[in-house]
Amino acid sequence: MEKDLKSTPASELDKFIQDHLLPDTTFRDEVRADIDFICTFLKEKCFHGAALKVSKVVKGGSSGKGTTLQGKSDADLVVFLNNLTSFEDQLKRRGEVIEKIRKHLCQLQQEKQFKLKFEFQTPEQANSRSLSFKLSSPQLQHVVKFDVLPAYDVLGHVNINSKPNAQIYASLIRKCTDLNKEGAFSTCFTELQRNFLKRRPTKLKSLIRLVKHWYQLCKEKLGDSLPPQYALELLTVHAWERGNGLTEFNTAQGFRTVLELVTKYQQLRIYWTMYYDFQHLDVSKYLYRQLKKPRPVILDPADPTGNVAGGNQEGWRRLASEARLWLQCPCFMNRDGSPVSSWEVQVDEAWSCILL
């Protein structure tokens, strides 16, 4: 589909998204029905009578955020357990919990008639402490892969407008620093990651789909050693927030802006203060250190220990080279042959951190 996107006129990108990237409604509804059943099973029956107690099951990834791609997508099912009482406990008991869930889901697979084909995925590594399954429609050739992830319920009840107590982040930072596990507990903040995108305009989610599709095309060509897709999703949100911010906008301009920002990766320093900020002394000091790291820096808006853009300069360099090639394609050209304009997004703004 690379040729299809490259040759699509800028004025027809919305139609391209509608025709090729939005998920099939029937498949989407069947996935939702099967996943709702699995979530109910995990919460109410999987550990019935056992010492482990599930407090909630949350859909994360593209499925939870509303940015699923047509054909093939990945998603998370995060199982929060009351009996995991700390971040360290989550690390220690992950394997035990995964095996219990695997056993019960295997039994459910044999007993329940799912709307879609239910298959377990074989772990890529022997003795892997991971659990994945996929739901697929052979007729439509569509598939969604789910990773099942046990997590410590550090947030408890989450309101869509709520901001966690800063002490939670101070505790997270201490534990990640002590264990050298920065970003390892992002699953605990899945609901915040989901809420960060959930209320965004529909058209922004469509732009994210387009950027994700472009990223997948790059991955097919360049291999797996690229920056994580999540970094591109957050970069798209940043481009829209700083460059446009409107419910309706020109998709080609937004797409061009994101790819131009990719080419400027060495200047990127992006963070949000929706869920954490500089008011708490320990959190403030840590954020200051994070933001001083070599760029690109894109902090997970829900987890300040996760620099989703860090540690892969070569991957960014290769992705930037590919972006430069794409910017010459018809999908970025007006009808008269002139290049589509991009939004004005500053990449090297002055900033300050207030240390209390």
From TrEMBL:
It holds the Pfam family OAS1_C. Its main location: cytoplasm. This is 2'-5' oligoadenylate synthase. GO terms for molecular function: 2'-5'-oligoadenylate synthetase activity; RNA binding. It comes from Rattus norvegicus. It comes from the Eukaryota. InterPro entries: 2-5-oligoAdlate_synth_1_dom2/C, 2-5OAS_C_CS, NT_2-5OAS_ClassI-CCAase, NT_sf, Polymerase_NTP_transf_dom. Its cofactor is Mg(2+).
